[in-house]
């Protein structure tokens, strides 16, 4: 198989997930420059006030939910390419997940970092998502009405597409 982009139908400047025939493929990033890339994502799990109290006091029946969710988020970020089709495997240089219990919610933030040819947005978003699911799983016996939501990219730096700051 040739690596000539014109024969493969891949637009070397478009970085599309589709070939010339419209078939899905992994984007070829071999021509992109390695840069430091950082992405920050956030999300929230809405919880009952009693669950918030138990989380804050460390009295949850299943143990330290926040520690488990933090570890789950880091582990998920490292496995993003196994979970998201066509996502590149990335050597992460850092992943940080923080969880803060508020009145009626757990706020989650994940920061993923690499020095590579493609960004880490999906890794940060995956870390938040899996952390939120872990909170849900460990608290569901006490609150079946929990809601996971507002998962979003809030910051990205490095790479060809430039920097992004959201809310």
Outline the structure in words.
The protein contains five helices and five strands, in the order αβαααββαββ. The protein is α+β, with helices and mostly antiparallel strands and 167 residues long. The chain has one domain: Alpha-Beta Plaits (2-Layer Sandwich). It has a five-stranded antiparallel sheet with strand order 2-3-1-4-5. A hairpin with a 6-residue loop joins strand 4 and strand 5. Helix 3 packs antiparallel against helix 5. The chain is elongated and about 55 Å long.
Which short descriptors sum up this protein?
single chain; 167 residues; alpha+beta; Alpha-Beta Plaits; five-stranded antiparallel β-sheet; 5 strands
In short:
The chain contains 5 helices and 5 strands. It is an alpha+beta fold and 167 residues long. α3 (65-78) runs antiparallel to α5 (121-139).
């Amino acid at each position: 198989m040739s690596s000539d982009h014109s024969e493969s139908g891949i637009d070397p400047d478009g970085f599309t997930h589709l070939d010339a025939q419209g078939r899905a493929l992994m984007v070829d990033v071999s021509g992109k420059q390695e840069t430091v890339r950082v992405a920050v994502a956030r999300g929230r799990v809405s919880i009952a006030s009693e669950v918030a109290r138990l989380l804050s006091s460390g009295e949850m029946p299943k143990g330290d939910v926040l520690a488990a969710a933090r570890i789950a988020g880091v582990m998920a970020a490292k496995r993003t390419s196994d979970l998201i089709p066509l996502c590149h495997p990335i050597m992460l240089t850092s992943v940080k997940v923080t969880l803060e219990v508020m009145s009626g919610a757990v706020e989650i933030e994940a920061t993923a970092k690499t020095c590579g040819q493609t960004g880490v947005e999906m890794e940060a978003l995956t870390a938040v998502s899996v952390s939120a699911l872990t909170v849900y799983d460990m608290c569901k016996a006490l609150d079946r009405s929990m809601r996971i939501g507002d998962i979003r990219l809030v910051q990205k730096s490095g790479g060809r597409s430039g920097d992004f700051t959201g809310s």
